[in-house]
């Protein structure tokens, strides 16, 4: 029986089938799940995750092959420590992905979130459903952040597996030289991954804001990546030392705190506070732009 | 077809009148109670000037009675889609107000839009998802839709537009006509009080166009109000009870189709046996028809208020042979040209 038939007979059934305007329980969860399915079901995003996961694999392979050469134990960051303890591959891989690959991931995900839906025209149909713009932006933010967390997790897990396979996992020697049990070490590395994930929230907010400005997802993506790069460049100029603490990327490497005997939570929370400020500012900008924007694509 | 006759009698007879800016400003901006219940769509002085400076919609006053099928016509670029975007809260009016099912837009969007199905400027879906998955996505984003009936509703909607067989095929593999059908299915995901269909016949072959007309008629018979736009008059004219004609952002004319059509001056052509032309001309003149002209064995005259039956009866009563009688009203297309001074398909 079609809707029309149902409505035509004017029975009590018809009244029941009349769309109600009262939100159904669990509507939020339903939309979030749908959004996550959309993000994670997309081939391109799956390829992106696979590409990120390949970084620790390649890094591990290179270090494994060259470990008996003269260059063994050398390299930036924690690369030199990896051959001694596979656990450090997690940290080394995250350091390699932080400057460009993770910002690129964020750029792609945020660009797709609003600008992508606008350019494909699906945004107008979502809004006509209707989905309130505030709700849609919130759901997009949650889904993007989940994807970024999944990216960090993918890098971390693959690094852990590759590190364990190639170099083995042993008790962890901290930056100060103190050694702690492997289980504690794993916990601390998990803390590193969590801090890295949360450090990216500010850039996600910036990316979402750019995404509300344009109907060209690639434009939003490029702008987001450029912000991360410019921030990193400014961070290297001693002349700008005064503004360094407020820079989006300045505290990204503070995760090293987790590898000290006494973790200085003050350092970590100031890094988080800076991210929270970026989220507040660019989240509000994105919201005020999105709720008033004409959707004419 | 009973759709037009029975329903339009229950709605106020919207006499033909110039719409929009020609009305005295503020004359009926007060929303009276009968309008709220009788009109599914109402706008007052609705205007959109884009940031580019383009005045896309210029002070229009739409009146779409409940239960009507309102044909929203106009050449490409005349402002139909922009108007529809404003009705749905996608675009903010520069000035003016719009009510949908009695609620002001865009503030009432959350209450009203679940009861409104829409197709705006062609279908748009995620290309890598199938038809059914795309409908599921839209339904999941509707906070007022019952998830337990989602699957059944989407299957029914797909069935209704004849897409059941292609339900799992990725959207990007759909033909233009299939895409348009999926857009209609999305509009029919839930029972609707109002359907806003922007150029639903775009990209469809004649058979598909007929099916869309049939669907509109079915929905209208079941009590759904339909606002359907097109730049091709002939594609939708037949199903409409009401028409509004846009030109350069202005609503040039709106009203019941019947009234609009009757507005044109009808001409009658009478064919008689050769030697009776003179006598027949006298009969026509006697009936009070103007501009009686002979052309061989045929006579042309303005019909005026006289019914065609009166003409044939008078000729037969005068003992003359009536070989043929034809009444020609100017088509709406001609009316349009008369109104705008431009052809129907001329974009600006
Ligand atoms: N986003 C926009 N920015 C600037 N001008 C626009 C925009 N959208 C539409 N227009 C212009 O507004 C006019 C009306 O367009 P539209 O409402 O799409 O007409 P229709 O649907 O009747 O073909 C056109 O001249 C078009 O170029
Ligand atoms: Mg249009």
TrEMBL record, chain A:
**A Pfam family it matches:** ABC2_membrane_4
GO molecular function terms listed in the Swiss-Prot or TrEMBL record: ABC-type transporter activity
Q: Where do the segments described as Disordered lie?
A: 1-22
Judging by the UniProt lineage, the source's domain of life is Bacteria
Q: Which GO terms describe its cellular component?
A: plasma membrane
Kindly list the residue ranges recorded as spanning the membrane.
Answer: 47-66, 86-115, 136-169, 189-210, 222-247, 267-287
Q: Which UniProt keywords apply?
A: Membrane, Transmembrane, Transmembrane helix
**Per its record, how is this protein called by name?**
ABC transporter permease
């Amino acid at each position: 029986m079609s809707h029309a038939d149902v409505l035509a007979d004017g029975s009590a059934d018809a009244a029941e089938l009349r769309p109600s305007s009262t939100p159904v329980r669990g509507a939020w969860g339903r939309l979030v799940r749908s959004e996550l399915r959309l993000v994670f079901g997309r081939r391109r995003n799956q390829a992106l995750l696979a590409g990120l996961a390949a970084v620790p694999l390649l890094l591990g392979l290179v270090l494994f092959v060259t470990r008996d050469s003269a260059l063994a134990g050398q390299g930036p960051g924690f690369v030199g420590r990896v051959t001694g303890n596979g656990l450090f591959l997690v940290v080394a891989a995250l350091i390699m992905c932080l400057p460009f690959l993770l910002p690129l991931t964020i750029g792609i995900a945020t660009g797709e979130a609003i600008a992508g839906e606008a350019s494909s025209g699906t945004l107008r149909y979502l809004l006509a459903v209707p989905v309130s713009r505030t709700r849609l932006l919130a759901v997009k933010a949650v889904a993007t952040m989940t994807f970024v967390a999944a990216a960090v997790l993918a890098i971390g897990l693959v690094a852990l597996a590759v590190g364990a396979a190639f170099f083995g996992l042993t008790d962890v020697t901290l930056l100060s030289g103190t050694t702690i049990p492997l289980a504690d070490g794993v916990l601390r590395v998990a803390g590193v991954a969590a801090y890295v994930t949360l450090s990216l929230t500010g850039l996600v907010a910036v990316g979402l804001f750019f995404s509300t400005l344009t109907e060209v997802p690639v434009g939003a993506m490029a702008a987001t990546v450029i912000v991360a790069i410019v921030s990193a460049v400014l961070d290297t100029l001693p002349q700008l030392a005064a503004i360094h603490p407020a820079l989006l990327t300045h505290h990204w490497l503070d995760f090293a705190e987790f590898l000290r005997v006494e973790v200085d939570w003050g350092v970590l929370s100031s890094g988080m506070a800076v991210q929270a400020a970026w989220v507040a500012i660019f989240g509000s900008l994105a919201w005020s732009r999105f709720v008033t924007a004409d959707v004419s694509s | 077809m009973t759709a037009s006759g029975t329903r339009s009698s229950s709605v106020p007879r919207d006499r033909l009148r110039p719409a929009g800016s020609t009305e005295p400003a503020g004359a009926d901006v007060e929303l009276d109670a009968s309008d709220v219940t009788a009109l599914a769509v109402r706008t007052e002085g609705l205007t959109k000037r884009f940031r580019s400076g383009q005045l896309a919609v210029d002070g229009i006053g739409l009146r779409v009675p409940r239960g009507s099928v309102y044909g929203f016509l106009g050449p490409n670029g005349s402002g139909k889609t922009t108007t529809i975007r404003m009705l749905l809260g996608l675009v903010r009016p520069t000035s003016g107000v719009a009510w949908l099912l009695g609620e002001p837009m865009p503030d009432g969007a959350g209450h009203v839009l679940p009861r409104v199905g829409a197709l705006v400027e062609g279908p748009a879906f995620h290309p890598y998802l199938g038809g059914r998955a795309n409908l599921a996505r839209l339904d999941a984003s509707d906070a007022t839709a019952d998830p337990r009936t989602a699957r059944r509703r989407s299957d029914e909607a797909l069935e209704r537009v004849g897409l059941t067989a292609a339900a799992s095929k990725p959207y990007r593999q759909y033909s233009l006509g299939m895409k348009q059908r999926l857009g209609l299915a999305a509009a029919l995901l839930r029972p609707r009080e109002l359907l806003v269909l922007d150029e639903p016949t775009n990209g469809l072959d004649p058979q598909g166009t007929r099916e869309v007309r049939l669907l509109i008629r079915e929905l209208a018979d079941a009590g759904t109000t339909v606002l359907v736009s097109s730049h091709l008059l002939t594609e939708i004219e037949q199903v409409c009870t009401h028409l509004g004609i846009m030109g350069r952002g202005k609503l040039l004319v709106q009203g019941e189709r019947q009234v609009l059509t009757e507005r044109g001056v009808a001409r009658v052509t009478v064919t008689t046996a050769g030697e009776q032309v003179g006598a027949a001309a006298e009969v026509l003149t006697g009936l009070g028809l103007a501009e009686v002209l002979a052309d061989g064995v045929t006579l042309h005259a303005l019909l005026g208020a006289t019914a065609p039956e009166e003409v044939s009866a008078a000729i037969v009563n005068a003992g003359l042979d009536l070989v043929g009688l034809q009444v020609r009203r100017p088509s709406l297309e001609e009316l349009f040209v008369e109104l705008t001074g431009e052809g129907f398909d001329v974009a600006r």
